[in-house]
Structures are given as C-alpha cells and as structure tokens.
Design goal:
The chain has helices spanning about 10-20, 25-30, 80-90, 130-140, 185-200, 225, 255-270, 300-310, 310-325, 330-345, 370-380, 390, 455-470; strands spanning about 100-105, 110-115, 120, 145-155, 155-160, 200-210, 275, 290-295, 365-370, 415-425, 425-435, 440-445. The strands form three sheets. Strands 2-1-12-11-10 form a five-stranded antiparallel β-sheet, with helices on both faces. It is α+β, with helices and mostly antiparallel strands. The protein has three domains: about 1-35, no CATH class; about 50-140 and about 345-470, DD-peptidase/beta-lactamase superfamily (Beta-lactamase, 3-Layer(aba) Sandwich), CATH 3.40.710; about 145-295, 3-Layer(bba) Sandwich (D-tyrosyl-trna(Tyr) Deacylase, Chain: A), CATH 3.50.80. Helix 1 packs antiparallel against helix 2, helix 4 runs antiparallel to helix 8 (about 300-310) and helix 5 packs across helix 7 (about 255-270). It starts with 10 loop residues before the first helix and ends in a 7-residue tail after the last helix. Pfam families: Peptidase_S13. InterPro entries: Beta-lactam/transpept-like, Peptidase_S13. Keywords: Carboxypeptidase, Hydrolase, Protease.
C-alpha cells in the first residue's frame, strides 16, 4: 500500500497554531481554507434554500425513539451499470487522487450495486466513528447509561469515581441535553446531604479514574491535536469533554479527571463543606458506600452526539466502555480490539480492518468502503433495533451536524444521512440516501490520497456523486 505523508505537517499544523493564538476567529479562517475540519469553505454563498422538505427522512427523530422513513418495497432498484458509471467518473476525477474506494448497495436487500475497489482498506478518517458507535450500542445496548459516583473511602475521605461519562456539567445537569446531562452540582448536593446527616463538614477528596487504563494519548496523535482542541487526553471522567473554554475546538485540560475533582471540590466548598488538601489519584476500596451518583444520557444519545459533532474524545470513551463490556482492557488497544470484535461477531467481514484509535484521528487506521456499507445495511435492519441508531442518527444533509452546510440543495437535502471524514489527504463520506423514486441506498466513498489543496475539491466531487445518487431514476422507463 502506498505510503502517505503525515497530515500534520504544513498547513494543518500552521492552522492549529493560528487557532490556538487567535481563538475562534483564527480557527474559522483556517476552516474557510479547508485545512482543518469544519463547515466553512470559500465557495460562493448559495441562494436562499427553498422551504425545507417535509419528507419523513428529513424530520428530526423524536427523543428516545428510533425511526426510519417509510419505504415502498415495490420501488425498483436503480440500474447497477448506470450507478457504476457515475461512481467511476467520481473516482477518476483529478481532485480525488489515486486511491479511491466507492461502494453502493441497496439498503433493503444488501445487494451491492457499485463496487469500485471497495475491498481495499483505506484511511477512514472520522467515518471510523460509525464502527465505534455500532460496537458501543451493540455491546451495551442503546438504553445504557454511564454512572459517575462519589464513595466514602474512610473516615472523612471521599473518592470521585469515573465511569466513562466525559460530558459532565460543571453545574446542574440538564435532562434534555447530552453534553451536560449529568451535573457535578447535583452530585455535590447528594453528597452534602449525606454528610450533613452524618454530621460531617470537613473531608478530603480524591479521584478514581482507573475505569480507563493504559496511555491517555494515542501514539498516532500529535501535540497539535491537543493544543488545537481536536481531542483530550482520554480519562474516565471529564467536565464538558475537557474543554477549557466554550468554542468548537478549544484547548483541552491536560488532566481531565483531576480537573473534574477540583470542580467537585469547589462545589462542596460552596455548600459549606471544607475540602482539605488537593485531589489526588487513588483507587476506591471495593464495596465502598456510595454517597451520590449521577448518570449520563443514554448510550444511543451519546453515540448520536459523537456522529453529529464528530467529537473525537467522546468516540474514544465509547470505545473504552465497549472494551469493558467485552471484558477487555479499557485502553487504546483493548478498545480498538473490542470495536473490531463486535463487528466480527455481528457477522460483518472485517478482513483488512485495522484501528489505531476509535475516532479515526490517528494515523494507522484502515477500513474498506465495503465494510462501512455492510455495517450500515446491518444497522438499518428494522428486525434488530439494537444498532439502528447508527443508521438513523447520523447528520442529515443540509440540516444537522457536520452535514449542515453540505448537500443543501435538492434532491439530496434532507434525504441523506451520512458521516463525514476529513484529514490531510483524506476525504470520506458514508451513509444512506433515498433516491427521488423512493429507493433507499447505502454508500461509502473513501479517498485517502487526495492532492494538496484542502477538502473543498474532493468534497465537491463526493457531494456531486451523492446528489446523482439521490436524483437517480436510473434504469426506470
């Protein structure tokens, strides 16, 4: 397989530095030039869109429900030869480079309609999050929640115990939110009540984040991935995904668990409990008395958040809880093994699949386009709802998440659900599209040797191809 130049040299490293110095404004400039992930381009502003379509696929899924657009099984399948001709034209475009895989399948039957080098593993970028989300909901179930607790480790000594929730709120939790569903202020309220009943007003507080093991940083991550805000050190609890300030890509706290313990200590102090010393790491004793507990949003909602926002840190946490569910080490190695094992156990052909991390950020991950298509076809099977969130909770074209500013015109707008992927030299998109005739298709496009010039060129080619799929009445009289 041809060697790839590291994506972190040149424009990407410079853009990350600009973003760090200039804050959101600097990042938006880099985003507009397509050298960092984001929604902006230098493409001319499109005219105002027509009224938003009310097609079932374009409507937001009600909370805690799993829905798919109604499908007329009598709608003919598009002609495979015509679709293949469109795919080959896209793959051969100069903006796509020399390594392109495209697969299209009928969602209802799984029949492969297009296969342009689809079995060759390629760098997936953030489409790897589809595999991680699939594995997580399959291993734990979509209704699972992640608990954060405070236990009593001895007389006057408390331990904050992380359970994998990296989206804790600093204040009160918001039951309608995913990021911030559980709040450390609520946890403090519970603990203070128990302490008052026991007549205790002075404690020491430590933190136990041993639920996640191994290195906190993947070998394939660069320092600019942290300073540029693309990922946080992976620990078993964080406040607001370890963000140091509220913007899309802020620097992250270097020790998220200790930061969370400091936030809880401050909340206890505000409630009249003296906290002696500074929090340190420890391991909570087995069977310690629980003084308080808060729970995350459902795993389905957490997976949807990771797919909608393409958040690397959340995806890494999902990989680790998947590893725990399978009895594997909750490390990078255990998490990546767990994700591939879940796909294999589900009957998917994982030949050639390699993951360096669970988010697609690190160099060294390889997935075939064919595997991504098979994964979505399996997830969309209404007879097994466990993994349906992966099929229905991806960003919707022209409306949500990382597709909000893409595919904004008909026929694709509102009728494409797909996961984006962007690294230097890598552009990918995988998901579902409903044709104008009403036939649901599954597609994956991976290009991992795109020429210099940023994301705009290959994105245009891929988006044009997906628009052609959406508008295809191929083979119909």
């Amino acid at each position: 397989m041809a060697a790839r130049t590291s994506r972190r040299s040149g424009p990407v490293a410079a853009a990350a530095a600009v973003a760090l110095v200039l804050g959101a404004g600097g990042y938006l400039v880099a985003d507009a030039h397509d050298v960092v992930p984001g929604f902006l381009t230098l493409e001319p502003v499109p005219p105002p869109p027509s009224p938003f379509p009310v097609a079932p696929a374009a409507q937001e899924p009600p909370p805690l429900e799993i829905v798919l657009p109604p499908v007329d099984v009598d709608v003919p399948v598009p002609d495979a030869q015509e679709l293949t001709a469109l795919a080959r034209a896209a793959a051969d475009h100069e903006w796509m480079g020399d390594s392109v895989g495209i697969v299209v399948a009928d969602q209802l039957t799984g029949e492969v309609l297009v296969d342009v080098d689809g079995d060759r593993p390629r760098t997936p970028a953030s489409t790897a999050k589809m595999a991680t989300g699939f594995a997580a909901v399959r291993a734990l179930g979509p209704d699972a929640r992640l608990a954060t607790t405070v236990v009593q480790a001895g007389s006057g000594r408390l331990v904050l115990v992380g359970g994998g929730d990296v989206m804790l709120a600093q204040g009160a939790g918001d039951p309608t939110a995913v990021n911030g569903h559980a709040g450390l202020a609520d946890l403090a309220d519970q603990v203070v009540l128990r302490l008052e009943l026991a007549g205790v007003d002075e404690v020491a507080l430590d933190v136990d984040d041993t639920f996640f093991t191994g290195p906190r940083l993947a070998p394939g991550w660069a320092d600019t991935d942290l300073s540029g805000g693309f990922v946080a050190p992976v620990t078993a609890l964080m406040v607001n995904i370890a963000k140091t300030r509220e913007e899309p890509y802020p620097p992250r706290h270097r020790d998220p668990s200790l930061h969370a313990a400091q936030v809880l200590a401050a909340a206890l102090e505000e409630r009249g409990v003296t906290v002696t010393g500074a929090p340190t790491r420890t391991e909570a004793p087995e069977g310690a008395t629980v003084l308080g507990m808060v729970e995350s949003a459902t795993l389905r909602d957490v997976v949807a958040y990771s797919l909608q926002t393409s958040d690397n840190t959340v995806s890494e946490a999902l990989g680790r809880v998947t590893a725990h569910a399978r009895g594997l080490p909750t490390s990078f190695q255990g998490a990546t093994r767990a994700v591939i094992a879940e796909m294999t156990d589900a009957g998917l052909d994982t030949t050639g699949a390699v993951l360096a991390d669970c988010s697609g950020l690190a160099d060294g991950s390889w997935l075939p386009a064919r595997l991504l298509v098979d994964l979505v076809v399996l997830s969309a099977d209404p007879t097994d709802t466990a993994t349906l969130p992966v099929a229905v909770d991806m960003p919707v074209a022209g409306w949500q998440g990382t597709l909000a500013e893409r595919l904004t015109s008909t026929p694709a707008r509102g009728l494409v659900r797909a996961k984006t992927g962007s690294l230097r030299g890598v552009t990918s998109l995988s998901g579902t599209v409903v044709t104008v005739e009403g036939r649901p298709l599954v597609f994956a496009v991976l290009a991992d040797q795109t020429p210099p010039g940023g994301q705009l060129g290959p994105r245009r080619v891929i988006d044009t191809f997906v628009q052609q799929l959406a508008g295809c009445g191929c083979g119909l009289p």
